[in-house]
Specification:
By secondary structure, this protein is of the alpha/beta class. About 40% of the residues lie in helices and about 20% in strands.
């Protein structure tokens, strides 16, 4: 599987480099541990960990090329000695993290980095961006899957995501949570995700007659045809699609389906279903698209829409209802000294940590406990696992299919009330007694 183009060490905020230069100049090089977590948000009852593979690949290849060093030298901000240090820099730290697909909650560390302070500092922006965006999209995707009642979902977001890289992240993150496919051909190539697509209104308009557009497309793709039927008048479009579908049957092929992209999707889907069934095309699917997300999908299905699959785009690719995560990367231990930030509303938990999850007798998550890295809690499973030691991967990356399975297991174990897309419910997350004691001595 092809790897996406690497991001590189200049993908950072300037102050990461200026702090590193000050550490270097003052010979500050003791080990530090940083904790990466998401602050709670009333718009999200849970989060889905995503982006770890990309983050680890970047850490594995984190070095300053000659081009990067030349640019930094031209800024006239850094000494020649520091530039020389960067030219030989490699990340050699230790990383523990939650596996991708893990459901987690606010304030729980999803990753902790332990490395000499300069190493740990320089990767901050990179990790926040990668894990934050991928987790944002995966969480949005999980919410959509939850309300879809088993209907397949396809990622249609590429044309309105904020850039090429975002489009790849959306495709991969939503696939982790169970999306069936993506329209993003590059994501299909890079990640091995199934690709799916239909046609645009411009294609239909190119032909003098709508039915001619359908016939021409069916001639090229006789076994994978989904007609877009709302370019002019949806019901008339459905009738023409049904006629071409019957012609395809006579030629030994089958109409895959039709797509609705506008109008009253509930009423239209019912009428279109009747037209297709009456034409002997009961197996033809009805796809819907056009500004859909978990809220719209839920409304459509509750009103009895006869829709078999959904294409979701802009609202998912930008996580429109909650377009950012308050994800942070905070120093929690330095030079064998536990550190706690006490700023009002932004307090942190000192110490190297672990998250322990307890399930009830039915296998449903009952409580998470944030504890110290070296402790254990009875009847609870630790969620953070070593993924990198001294800058080397502990094991090969899991397959996307295995990450999907991990998400499904996690999501099935999440109580229904926390899956609500309308009500805010705070999952019980507590601190172990040992972790509490560490906070008291700060």
């Amino acid at each position: 599987m092809q790897k996406p183009h690497r991001i590189g060490p200049l993908f950072t905020d300037l102050y990461e480099l200026t702090m590193a230069a000050a550490y270097f100049q003052n010979n500050v090089q003791a080990k530090a541990t940083f904790s990466l977590f998401v602050r709670p948000n009333e718009n999200r009852n849970f989060y889905v960990a995503a982006g770890l593979e990309t983050a680890l690949d970047e850490l594995s290849a984190f070095d300053f090329t000659d081009i990067a060093c030349d640019y930094l030298k031209k800024t006239n901000l850094f000494s020649d000695n520091f530039i020389q240090f960067l030219s030989q820099f490699r990340f050699r730290g230790d990383v523990v993290a939650m596996p991708e697909g893990t459901v987690f909650f606010g304030d729980e560390p999803v990753m902790e980095i332990t490395a000499p302070i300069i190493e740990a500092q320089l990767v901050e922006t990179l990790l926040l961006n990668i894990l934050g965006s991928n987790t944002l999209f995966a969480t949005k995707g999980a919410r959509c899957l939850h309300v879809s009642q088993g209907c397949p979902l396809v990622d249609f977001s590429l044309r309105r995501t904020q850039g090429q890289d975002a489009g790849l992240r959306v495709a991969r993150s939503t696939y982790i949570t169970g999306f069936a496919a993506t329209s993003n051909v590059q994501a299909g190539k890079v990640f091995g995700i199934p690709v799916s697509g239909t046609m645009a209104h411009s294609y239909v308009s190119t032909f003098e007659n709508e039915i001619d557009a359908f016939r021409a497309y069916a001639d090229v793709f006789p076994d994978d045809v989904v007609f877009l039927i709302d370019t002019y008048e949806t019901i008339a479009g459905a009738q023409k699609a049904a006629r071409v579908g019957q012609e395809m049957n006579q030629q030994g092929h089958m109409l895959k389906g039709v797509r609705l992209d506008s109008g009253d999707l509930v009423a239209l889907s019912k009428q279109v279903r009747e037209i297709l069934d009456a034409a002997g095309l009961a197996n033809a699917l009805i796809f819907a698209s056009g500004g859909l997300d978990e809220f719209e999908i839920e409304k459509l299905l509750k009103k009895g829409a006869r829709i078999d699959a959904f294409g979701v785009g802009t609202a998912v690719g930008t996580s429109a209802d909650a377009p950012n995560l308050d994800i942070v990367y905070k120093l929690v231990r330095f030079n064998n000294r536990n550190i706690r930030k006490l700023s009002p509303g932004k307090q942190t938990l000192a110490g190297e940590k672990q998250v322990f999850r307890k399930l009830d007798a039915q296998g449903i998550m009952s409580v998470d406990t944030i504890g110290l890295r070296d402790e254990s809690i009875a009847d609870s499973q630790p969620l953070l696992a070593p993924v990198m030691r001294r800058g080397e991967l502990v094991q090969d990356h899991p397959r996307l299919r295995d990450i999907q399975k991990n998400f499904k297991l996690n999501f099935n174990a999440l109580g229904d009330r926390y899956k609500s897309i309308h009500e805010s419910h705070r999952f019980p997350v507590c601190l172990s007694e040992k972790l509490k004691q560490v906070q008291e001595v700060q």
